[in-house]
Design brief:
Blueprint lengths: L4 H16 L8 H28 L3 E3 L4 E3 L2 H12 L1 H16 L20 H24 L5 H28 L4 H8 L3 H21 L16
Antiparallel strand pairs: 1-2
Length: about 230
């Protein structure tokens, strides 16, 4: 009589394959994680370069306090909306560190820690928090809402972030470094508000276009389907 022991030993493996529909992928897990990490590093580098490029574009002077209108807020919001909180925070942090160590990557070619004593200090520091906050909002919207709601919800989140983070910290920075009273700091900040809100809309439209064309840039949570017996 033929020995059927090898067939019985293989039964557990065959039953596992039948239940899962695919072989064990544990060995392939490491290359996948390396690929994702490489993609994240590349995206952080690209958006850091975008932040630098936005600062290189000459700003429009407003008032006599030395705070120009630039494309930096547009780049910051776009970074958060596209990359999500972690990678956007890393991109903005890298940008700030490059400027603080002496590279002329801030507006008007400024660099070094001395910018923290100037009128733009609050705005610069707000960029990191703004990118993280709007990145959190973008991740929540893209994961949990329909595509038709992306633009209005992201515009709302961007407006709130711009007002509550960028402009509040910018006003606080002018009050501390320029010793301005609150009313004077708010008056100095107001000319930037309409342009920043317009830039928010542009950033949202661009970010939604990116996510629709490349849905894996900010990974969406996969919806679990009920398994059938």
């Amino acid at each position: 009589m033929t020995d059927n022991t090898p067939v019985r030993r293989a039964d557990p493996l065959l039953s596992t394959l039948a239940r899962t529909g695919e072989p064990d992928q544990s060995a392939a897990g490491t290359p996948d994680r390396v690929g994702v990490d490489a993609q994240a590093v590349a995206l952080v580098a690209v958006f850091t370069a975008l932040l630098v490029a936005a600062a290189v574009v000459p700003g429009i002077p407003v008032g006599g306090l030395g705070v120009p209108i630039t494309l930096q807020t547009l780049a910051v919001m776009l970074t958060g909306l596209v990359l999500g909180p972690l990678r956007a925070g890393l991109a903005v942090l890298l940008y700030l560190l490059l400027g603080f160590v002496g590279l002329p990557v801030f507006s008007r070619g400024q660099s070094g820690l001395q910018v923290l004593s100037g009128p733009t200090a609050g705005y610069l520091l707000s960029f990191l928090l703004a990118a993280v906050v709007v990145g959190l909002a973008a991740r929540a919207v893209l994961r949990h809402t329909r595509r038709t709601l992306w633009v209005p919800l992201l515009v709302t989140a961007s407006f709130v972030t711009t007002l509550a983070v960028v402009h509040v910290l910018g006003i606080a920075g002018m009050m501390v470094n320029l010793r301005l009273p609150l009313s004077a700091a708010v008056s100095a900040d107001l000319p930037f508000l309409p342009g920043d809100l317009l830039k928010d809309v542009v950033a949202v439209v661009a970010a939604v276009a990116v996510h629709r064309a490349f849905p894996d840039v900010l990974a969406r949570a996969a919806k679990r389907r009920p398994t059938t017996p």
